[in-house]
Amino acid sequence: MKSKSQISLQLQTLHNEVTGSCTFCIVDYPDLTTERFALDCGFFQHDEEREYNTSFPFQPSELDFVVVSHNHFDHTGRLPLLVKEGFHGAIYTSEDTEKLLSISLPKAKEAVHELSKKLETPPLYSPEDIQATLGILMPIPMREKHQVTDHIWLTFFENGHVPGAVITLLEICFKKQKLNFLFTGDYNPQNVFLKIRELPPWVKKLPNLYVLMESTYGSLSKNKVRNTFSKTVASHIRNGFTVFCPAFAFSSAQKVLYAIKQMQQNHQLDPSVPIYLDGKQAIAFTELFASGQLNLLPLMEDFRPENLHYVSSDNRKEVMESPGPKIIVSSSGNASRGAASLYLPSFAGRSDVLIHFTGHLFEGSTSYELYHAPEGTEVTIGGQSITKRAKIASTHQFSGHAKQEDLIHFLKQFRDLNAVFLNHGEVPVKEELQRLIRKKVHVRYVCMTSREYSFRLGPTRLYEKKDRSIFYKSLCA
Ligand SMILES: [Zn+2]
User: Fold this and answer.
1) What is the pTM of this model?
2) pLDDT tens-digit map of 294-339
3) Can you list the domains of the chain with their CATH numbers?
4) Beta bridge partners of 38
């Protein structure tokens, strides 16, 4: 049983797998006071989970603060709903994520519109809720400790997942008791655009540390990732192909553009081959990356290839029909929405096109079906039946997630790991990573998070895993 003389932290994830990222935490103190916070507040993007978007199994008005680990919609997309439902604390994030959210969050109205159509319900939140959310973002510089409540101190550290991403350390103190809790968010040890410093020695030495860690690629070994992009693109360009690269607007599109610039510099690609970028957000993020306003490596602000042209609805048809060789980079990453979805039906049926996916292909998505369909067979794209004629390629090399070895290496740096909680991963992946951590890392407990159960943590030991969620079952079944 819980001792009333100890701090205790209850931990409850609201997501079981990779979207809708949100972890709700309640800290109970020996003086019978309580503090509550949430780590991320993302949108559920898979159809089978979409109904979870519509409500929270806690009172947003009772939260003291929220931490946002990075600018991805599956970590930020329900922040405006929190605000609409009465949250009035601060949303702590990095200085760069604050700038990035001012581009990405207003676009949330499209996802909200789509959800309201599918569920036949009023929109989840309004453009005014989005503006109110942007107004309570509280940017915190890296490596500066900030007191965020009476008993909680927060420090952000660099994280290579995407520009602006952080690892969050929360130090929860009550008199002589202290509970140390580290949240990776989505994590990557490096990023071509960023200088990622090691965690300082005092963090590695923290006693009884709890880590909440992502596990998206926890079953993928680094050795399985092939850096094939430039070779595949170069050979098709030499044969006069149009190369079409669906890429996520933020971070992936810029990494792909930089890879193309490197091909030009290495003489793998003639600079006279035109490069096109299509997608309003992809263009806005590209301009922001180049503007010097983000904390990127200074040399990387010059990441754009020669002969780069932006595409809009005015010239899209002309670009689509112009002869190859040419390269078109367009969002979204799996070509299911945005400008990329307008190219896909036409390009999938053309034998002079290489479609090179640069993001994860989710099972059941159109891009997944297209990738796996044999050439010459029918594929349904945007409601049309298309005979697949295009060449299709895919790579994980632009992924912003740590692979299995990186995650093990990350955990091994801590001197006194009490427990690791795995979140943000598909269940079989979490299970595989859990087994590997038990084998390779010195740690007392390795737990998988789920919306079906919660955990209660003390300053020096994990009290219990509860079989039931701390919320009423109907919402968390
Ligand atoms: Zn992410």
Assistant:
1) 0.92
2) 999 998 989 999 999 999 999 999 999 999 899 999 998 888 788 9
3) 8-220+400-476 (3.60.15.10), 230-394 (3.40.50.10890)
4) 24, 66
